[in-house]
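TICKET: design request
STATUS: open
ATTACHED STRUCTURE:
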């Protein structure tokens, strides 16, 4: 059982995916051409749908992730922090990867090793680099007990309401006791783009990461409604 629950707005931090200097090789597709002025090429429907599922916290199959990446701007990639976006997928390296590797993501989840090459598409960078793959989602988010939310979309088929969490402060987001069981990192149906974590994972991150990296994670404590 986890002791506290936190929410991270890191996936809304567009700076982590802006001008990272990487292009992708997707499974069953050729390498993307080097970006011109960091202009991202249009994705195939299959790739785009995989990115959307990842953003909603579904467990991804290996073939839905980028197969590999290559540097097209070394100066930009040198500025990339230990958490960044890679072709729309959440990626980690360095100390944050070391911390996450020892925690429970649930069945099917975890850190997936990812190869990043030099511009020649042949020489791998030392790394290691990982894509974060989510395990099962927890249905523990309580929107009507929370504050600072915007109802953005209602799925006409399922009736599922999708909520946008806006400007979170400690205690704004409420979760049920179901959040206290199981994995240390997950996402919830109806609130895409927000990662929930256990208190023990946050404590480990705070004990390991520099304050500047913690700021990028945009962490706020949730309120557990018993």
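STATUS: resolved
RESOLUTION: sequence designed for all positions
ATTACHED SEQUENCE:
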């Amino acid at each position: 059982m986890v002791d506290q629950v936190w929410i991270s707005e890191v996936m809304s931090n567009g700076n982590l995916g802006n001008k990272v200097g990487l292009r992708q090789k997707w499974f069953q597709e050729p390498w993307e051409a080097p970006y011109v002025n960091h202009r991202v090429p249009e994705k195939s429907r299959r790739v785009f749908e995989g990115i959307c599922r990842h953003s909603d916290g579904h467990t991804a199959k290996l073939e839905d992730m980028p197969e590999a990446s290559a540097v097209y701007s070394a100066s930009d990639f040198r500025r990339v922090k230990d958490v960044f976006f890679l072709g729309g997928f959440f990626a980690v390296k360095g100390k944050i990867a070391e911390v996450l590797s020892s925690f429970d993501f649930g069945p099917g989840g975890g850190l997936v090793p990812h190869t990043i090459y030099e511009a020649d598409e042949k020489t791998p960078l030392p790394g290691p680099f990982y894509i974060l793959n989510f395990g099962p989602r927890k249905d523990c988010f309580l929107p009507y007990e929370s504050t600072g939310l915007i109802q953005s979309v209602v799925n006409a088929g399922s009736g599922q309401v999708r909520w946008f969490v806006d400007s979170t402060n400690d205690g704004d987001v409420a979760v049920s006791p179901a959040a206290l069981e199981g994995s240390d990192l997950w996402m919830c149906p109806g609130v895409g783009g927000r990662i929930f974590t256990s208190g023990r994972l946050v404590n480990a991150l705070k004990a390991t990461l520099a304050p500047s990296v913690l700021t990028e994670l945009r962490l706020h404590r949730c309120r557990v409604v018993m």
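CLOSING REMARK: The first helix runs from residue 45 to 55. DSSP finds five helices and 15 strands in the chain.
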